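USER: For my understanding, would you kindly supply a protein sequence with its structure tokens?

ASSISTANT:
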Amino acid sequence: MSETIVNGIFTLAGALVGSGGLLILICFQNKKDTIRKELELQKDNLNLEIERKKETINFLKQDLVRLANQVKSYWKLEKFYSEEIAELLDKKARTKIIEFRKKVEKEDDYEKPYMTAIAADKIISKYD
């Protein structure tokens, strides 16, 4: 009878250990699935953020091209008005351009215009 009790205790202990192991395995599988889902969600969020950043970069490139074209237009405008003013004042157009640029440079929040049409064209060809 004591042998039956000992065998019963070992059988019961084996069943408990086995069921505990099974319970641990089930918990581990659930945790693994949860982690996998979280990682997939994070990956999706990162992909969305990357797409948004790409759209922003493309928008900024388009703005840069527009601004470079504006610089070229202003250089052309400067040429036209300086020629007109030079004729009226009987001076060279280049002299008036230099005078105007120095006036711009003396203003508080402005720097002397330095970008050339060639530099603007390089920006346009790079980002257009």
User: Anything to note?
Assistant: The chain has one domain: 2-127.
